[in-house]
């Protein structure tokens, strides 16, 4: 091969390498920093590394919690006298009951409970408090013992109707036979009994295993549940939703203590937040999820369809500490990106923080970021600011930066806000919203030291 050809090949491949590197740099630079704050990735990409022993213990505990929940939910469906599966229509279109639920209930109850109380199909109403509607079960506490493959759980909580009105407090003992898993069978057998006395704490429940197996029948089968980050995030989010809507005080206690004091300040403020956002909370749906580790603590992070972030810290359902945003207590990722970013990056991240506060209806926090002169000229009260935001911004805003300029110590940013609900919320001023309606705004930012800033915008 002649020297000229070799020299041309070297130049050719060198140009390719340089182009690839420049492409990577450009992509990195042009990616909006406000999208980098929480990078929700696919399952497993950021899975926390643990020892095999830790993985087995933590995962199996969560899986069994979910299975015990499923056993209780199955039992509650069974004792519902208006369960739709108990009825059929005759030739004339009349509805008639075709199933005797007492027989099914007997097949779910523990042998010890039925023998101790001499329960039969004829007297079962004396020992089982039946329901007349569909319900949600919200667990609050749990403990268990095991003997080989037999696990006995005590779980207490409360049930609500589908409008999240609390019906009553409940408690159950569940026997779960795990022996089928040894042969790869995912059909596990269980029996259950209600805890009829009033229980204030799970430690008041006495557990004792008196059986070596749980005999399978046509009704007492529960599927083995395999969990992962997506499953955990979905269940945690659903757990928070049910609790927030039915029992705000209990949900408030599940929030991280420092976070709830900074974000809400009081239980009454949190209850007001829940009441004002009840419709949105009812429709929460997870869109992205990830795991992260912050200061040695595992986090399951969920993002809903409107971009709201939910951070669940802890190893299982009963060990959760919850945060509802990333800005009230800034994450290590945010701090690192902010401190290492140039002024344009910092300004963009600050605008995004302001918009996130609006999206979270955290209006007081957003109001406190306003420039004092701007605030005095246009919004003398928080209520005036809220009224303006509700008319001239969307309920949930997507943010896009269009232009960035500097005038002295003031950073000027032209942005476009679009409706993240895609028109779900009808606004008489802006029509039905959606991507066809663009709100163009100019923001003015002053960096005042550390991560502090003041913001104003064109009226």
Describe this structure in a few short sentences.
This protein has helices at 3-30, 33-36, 52-78, 101-108, 111-117, 229-246, 248-254, 257-263, 267-276, 278-282, 332-340, 343-359, 363-367, 372-378, 382-392, and strands spanning 87-89, 95-97, 136-147, 150-160, 166-177, 187-194, 221-223, 286-294, 297-304, 309-313, 321-323, 397-407, 410-419, 439-449, 452-457. By secondary structure, the chain is an alpha+beta fold. The strands form four sheets. Strands 3-4-5-6-7 form a five-stranded antiparallel beta sheet. The chain has a four-stranded antiparallel beta sheet with strand order 8-9-10-11.
- Helix/strand/pairing category: alpha+beta
DSSP helix fraction: 25-40%
General shape: elongated
Content of β-strand = 25-35%
How far apart the termini lie comes to 70 Å
Structural domains: how many: 4
Largest sheet: 5 strands, antiparallel
Overall mean pLDDT stands at 85
């Amino acid at each position: 091969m002649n020297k000229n050809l070799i020299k041309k090949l070297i130049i050719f491949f060198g140009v390719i390498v340089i182009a690839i590197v420049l492409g990577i740099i450009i992509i990195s630079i042009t990616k909006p920093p406000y999208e980098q704050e929480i990078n929700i990735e696919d399952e497993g990409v950021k899975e926390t590394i643990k020892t095999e022993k830790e993985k087995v213990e933590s995962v199996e505990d969560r899986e069994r919690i979910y299975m015990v929940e499923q056993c209780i939910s199955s039992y509650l469906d069974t004792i519902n006298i208006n369960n739709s599966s108990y009825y059929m229509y005759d030739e004339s279109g009349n509805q008639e009951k075709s199933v005797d639920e007492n027989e099914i209930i007997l097949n779910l109850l523990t042998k010890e409970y039925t023998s101790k109380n001499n329960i039969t199909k004829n007297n079962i109403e004396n020992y089982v408090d039946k329901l007349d509607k569909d319900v949600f079960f919200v667990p609050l506490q749990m403990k268990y013992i095991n003997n080989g493959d037999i696990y006995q759980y005590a779980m207490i909580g409360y049930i609500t109707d589908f409008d999240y009105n609390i019906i009553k407090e409940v408690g159950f003992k569940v026997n779960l036979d795990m022996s089928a898993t040894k042969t790869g069978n995912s059909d596990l057998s269980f029996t259950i009994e209600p805890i009829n006395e009033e229980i204030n704490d799970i430690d008041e429940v006495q557990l004792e295993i008196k059986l070596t197996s749980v005999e399978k029948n046509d009704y007492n089968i529960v599927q083995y549940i395999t969990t992962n980050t997506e499953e955990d995030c979905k269940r945690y989010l659903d757990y928070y939703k049910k609790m927030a809507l039915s029992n705000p005080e209990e949900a408030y206690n599940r929030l991280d203590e420092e976070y709830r004091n900074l974000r809400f300040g009081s239980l009454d403020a949190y209850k007001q937040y829940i009441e004002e956002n009840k419709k949105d909370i009812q429709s929460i749906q997870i869109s992205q999820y990830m795991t992260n580790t912050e200061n040695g603590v595992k986090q399951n992070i969920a993002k809903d369809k409107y971009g709201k972030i939910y951070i669940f810290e802890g190893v299982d359902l009963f060990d959760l500490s919850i945060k509802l945003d990333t800005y009230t207590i800034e994450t290590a990722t945010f701090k690192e990106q902010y401190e290492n970013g140039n002024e344009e990056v910092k300004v963009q991240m600050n605008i995004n923080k302001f918009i996130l506060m609006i999206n979270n209806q955290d209006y007081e926090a957003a109001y406190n970021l306003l420039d004092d002169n701007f605030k005095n000229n246009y919004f003398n009260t928080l209520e005036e600011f809220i009224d303006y935001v509700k008319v001239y911004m969307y309920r949930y805003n997507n943010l896009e930066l269009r232009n960035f300029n500097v005038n002295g110590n003031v950073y000027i940013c032209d942005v476009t806000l679009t409706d993240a609900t895609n028109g779900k919320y009808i606004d008489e001023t802006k029509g039905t919203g959606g991507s066809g309606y663009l709100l163009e705004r100019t923001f003015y930012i002053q960096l005042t030291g550390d991560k502090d800033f003041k913001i104003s915008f064109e009226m």
